[in-house]
Write a structure and sequence with these properties.
- The chain contains twelve helices and 16 strands.
- It is α/β, with parallel strands linked by helices.
- The chain has two domains: 4-169 and 345-374, Quinone Oxidoreductase, Chain A, domain 1 (Alpha-Beta Complex); 175-321, NAD(P)-binding Rossmann-like Domain (Rossmann fold), CATH 3.40.50.
- The strands form three sheets. Strands 3, 5, 6, 7, 8, 15 and 16 form a seven-stranded mixed β-sheet that branches.
- The protein is globular.
Length: 377
């Protein structure tokens, strides 16, 4: 085992100021596990921002926005202090190997391949305010480092068939997608068969959602401004695709494709410029999952400002905010992935010393699926 622990940190003052440091390898205490991190995948949360960008498409906004955590802009969760300028280790998603155990650890042994849960203390049910404080990559140090001590309960077993790079993609993107499809269903009663799932964009959550929906037997519709990316989702099994740049009233196209019924489950990642269109193409009793806000957090005063209450009542729609999911639903996802042999889509893998380049690549918006950093061999 190495004597030094390399890590990439931010003071939440800009992506260009992310820096590498090192310190002694930590030691696990009672009920804790030391893991050697093998691979880390990147998320919107790590690198992108929340500025309101008028007059441009969601894809262009995604390319121009940056640094929610690195810029100290993660302030919409009031239980998290995003104003500190103390060094913070970046990133939330890891695949790792157990290398040492503290006392009283019963669940793991050296050599086990594991993934970390996003909010370490969120084990089951609806997340609570105090559990938000256990989030990796803010407010807790993240996983873009060689070694990390984690509580015994904050780990999930890696499905054996997945590579380290593939497994690192599951904790945030795949679990968020799983909860978007199944979060309102009881544990152990996953659904999707016969439903229509609408997925906005081709980022990690939406591509994971496409894979889950197709394996579940759902009909899928994907929107993007890139015909090239739409061709790729067709290869992954998407039933219908819509270029929202050439079809700005894409909600009408969704209604046409569904025979006027609308989509039953909607991955709402756009925010200000897409939410009302999502309501307009939702089925009766649909669930709109509020996942992101790449087009901004403030409505354009020139847009249709019909009250959300009215929009929800029009088709008895549920608008559900999604903040990842608990450990037991993560384990449920892993069982589903293993049963259907689902493999996350890894766009590109960078070496540890290329972390800045990897973050910039994600920032560029040219990725399809997940961007991964290989930490250890």
């Amino acid at each position: 085992m190495a004597q030094q622990n390399r890590k990439w940190q931010t003071r939440q003052d800009g992506l260009e100021k992310v820096f590498q440091a090192s310190e002694a390898v930590p030691k696990p205490g009672a009920g804790e596990v030391l893991v050697r991190i093998k691979a880390v995948s990147l998320n919107y949360r790590d690198t992108e921002g929340e500025r309101r960008l008028d007059g441009i498409s969601p894809d262009d906004a995604r390319r121009l926005m940056h640094c929610v955590v690195a810029m100290g802009l993660y302030g919409h969760h009031k239980t998290i202090d995003a104003t500190s300028n103390q060094p913070l280790v970046l990133c939330s998603d890891m695949c790792a190997e157990v290398v040492a155990l503290g006392s009283n650890v019963l669940s793991w042994k050296a050599g086990d391949r594991v993934m970390g849960t996003f909010c370490q203390d969120h084990l089951t049910g609806q997340i609570q305010a105090q559990q938000m404080g256990s989030g990796l990559g803010l407010p807790l140090d993240g996983v873009l480092q060689d070694y990390r001590v984690v509580p015994e309960h904050g780990l999930v077993k890696v499905p054996d068939y997945l590579t380290d790079e593939e497994a690192s993609c599951l904790p945030v993107a795949a679990v968020t997608a799983w909860m978007s499809v199944n979060g309102l269903r009881p544990l152990g009663q996953a659904g999707g068969k016969g439903e229509v799932v609408l997925l906005q964009g081709t980022g990690g959550v939406s591509v994971s959602g496409l894979q889950i929906a197709k394996a579940s037997g759902a009909t899928t519709i994907v929107t993007s401004s890139s015909d090239e990316k739409l061709s790729r989702v067709k290869e992954l099994g998407a039933d219908h695709v819509i270029n929202y740049r050439t079809t700005p009233d894409w909600h009408d196209k969704v209604m046409e494709l569904t025979g006027g019924n609308g989509a039953d489950i909607i991955f709402e990642v756009g925010g200000a410029r897409t939410l009302r269109k999502s309501f307009k193409c939702a089925s009766f009793g649909a669930v709109i999952n509020s996942i992101g806000y790449v087009t901004g957090k403030q409505d354009d005063p020139n847009d249709d400002l019909t009250n959300i209450n009215v929009l929800a009542l029009t088709r008895t729609v549920t608008l559900k905010g999604i903040i990842n999911g608990p450990k037991d639903r993560f384990e449920e996802l892993c069982d589903f992935y293993a049963k259907h042999q689902v493999r996350p889509v890894v766009d590109r893998v960078f070496d540890f010393d290329q972390a800045k380049e990897a973050l910039q690549y994600l920032f560029s918006g040219s990725h399809f699926g997940k961007v991964v950093i290989r930490v250890g061999a």
